[in-house]
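Progress narrative, work stream C.
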Amino acid sequence: MTEQKLWTRSFVIITVENFLIAMNFIVLVAVVAKFATAEFGASTTLAGFAAGIFILGAVFTRPVCGKWIYRIGQKRMLRRARAGCYCWPP
């Protein structure tokens, strides 16, 4: 049996990518709470509730989106998402 190296280039890239995605998610939660208090004058309790709803929404929609991406295909789904971003009013 041959030994495989753990610290390959692919492993490092995937690890860094997952770390950045996790950091993005953590920062978004903090921004949602800050935005709710600053822009809407919400209390800290209500801002925490908004951040919690954001987390629950992300957790429950990711498996659904994963199934869509698998069924439709990555490139077609990316094109649809990009088209949706262009059509969505700012």
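Work stream C, second folded protein:
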Amino acid sequence: MNKRHGAPGRDERRKTEGARPAEANESARGVMDVMLDFGVPIANGILTTDDEAQANARLEKGAEAVRVALEMAKLKGRIHEG
């Protein structure tokens, strides 16, 4: 617990919310809502980091999400052509 503000720290949030922080959960929910509303798949590549070092360490995960999104777009194009 963050004693200065009375808010739970990151470790406390993870204990109650699982492995993903609340921010990622809400973003994922928004992505899911768009998928359901429009009936199209969307690649979810939301990364949460505490600092620039973590962000740099996870660059490959971001690149992987981009590759998945591009592959999904190509596949959708082939399905509609066929």
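Residues 7 and 46 are 24 Å apart (CA to CA). No further action is required on this item.
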